Amino acid sequence: MPPAFFFQVPCAYKDIDGEALTACILNKLRDQPQVAAVKVPRFGDNRKFILGDLTILTGGMIFTDELDVKLEKSSPDLLDLSGSITITKEDTVVFNGEGSKDAIQAHCEQIRTLLADPSTSEYDKTKLQERFAKLSEGAAVIKAGDGTDVDVGEKKDRYDYPLNAERAAVEEGILPGSGAASLKASL
Fold it and tell me: Which sequence ranges form a coiled-coil region, renumbered to this chain (predicted)?
């Protein structure tokens, strides 16, 4: 059985076929609990980490042979989690997951520790930063493309400059512009 992440609306699978796919279709036809199959992105360990992040975020459970947790031995209350989930062709967004805020913060701290570890490769740091941003209630993905490599580089620079200015402002502190700081100081 491929690793799967189950909750009332979506199910994240490594691959879905055979009986699992048939069960999803039959549930839909019989007006049973709504289930959506979502392919888990990435490969290998990164896929496991994403499933772990979803588990922490939603308070769900991973059913996998490695952990010896079988779907057949589960109860319906394990599959009934609330929150709002939006699924598109490219993205799955979880709002108001049932995960414990303390557990999410502890998980974010683990990721911060891995980011600070000098032995972590640059590739792993990039993936850890993406996971951290998604778990810490703030993520933005900017996709930019153009006809030539030079144009792509220029467009990327146009996005990088304001992002770097924002990071510097957060680190060093900022004042509101257009005379607002003077106005506030005079009050």
Answer: none
Kindly report, residue by residue over 35-48, the tens digit of the pLDDT: 666 777 777 778 88
Distance between CA atoms of residues 113 and 184, nearest Å:
39
Q: Are 39 and 16 in contact (CB under 8 A)?
A: yes
Please state, as a whole number, how many other Cβ atoms lie within 10 Å of the Cβ of residue 20: 18
Predicted TM-score of the model (pTM) = 0.56
Domains in the chain, ordered, with CATH?
A: 4-95 (3.50.7.10), 100-141 (no CATH), 142-187 (no CATH)
Rounded (10°) angle between helices 101-116 and 44-58: 150
> Which of these, 58, 105, 115, 108, lies nearest to 84 by C-alpha position?
58
